[in-house]
Write the structure tokens for this entry.
Amino acid sequence: MLHLLSNIVCAFIPNKACRDKVRVMIRQPRRVREYVRFACTFGPNKKQCNVKTRVGYGCSNFIVILEDKYVFKFPLRGDGRDVSVREKRITDQIRKISPIKIPRMELWQCKNVVVRKYEFARGALLTEIEPKIIEKHRNHIAKQIAQFLYVIGKSNPAEIRDLKPHANDRAGFLYGWNHGDIWQNFILNPKTFDITFFIDWEAAYFGSFEPMLRAASHHWDKFGYRGIIVDVMAEYTKLYFQSGVKHK
């Protein structure tokens, strides 16, 4: 019955993010309330918390932002254990070498699910800034993304080699460790256009960059941030072939 009701209500909501949030609120009200209560236990005043809520891609996670200090990601499917442990293992190692900051992450238990708790990344998402403004800073942003891809891609942390398809796989051109979903998962300082954080690492993997770059190019073009992929590729290629390393 709740599924039918949510489908009827959501049919009148054009905004996808709002639609997903309403759908989750209608279908899983008790779980949502429980998750918000859990997040508030980390606040200075448990009865009057400043919270913002969102729903992750595909309604797979419920996200609570507490006091602009912490971000909690609660699973809406399963117990969240495997994806959470994997993400923490990867970020704990990549954080050590990344030229762009990665939010610190902790794992907590809320009844029978694993909760991801992150430090809040202050700044603006790409889509919160007009494309015409981004265009003026496109090269600066692209250089930072390229440097990030290059440094992460050539890394080979021993602690996560078992997460590769094959432990002895070697990094190469557009091949290696990568974030998996770069198109908008970075936080910008809206005054300097420096990238201050790279967030949301659950899609990270070791392998070809092609799927990630293809998706990024599609979304950048779709939302009006044209040309970023060209600048990223030019800068990455320069970094890679000027490094003096042997290539595959």
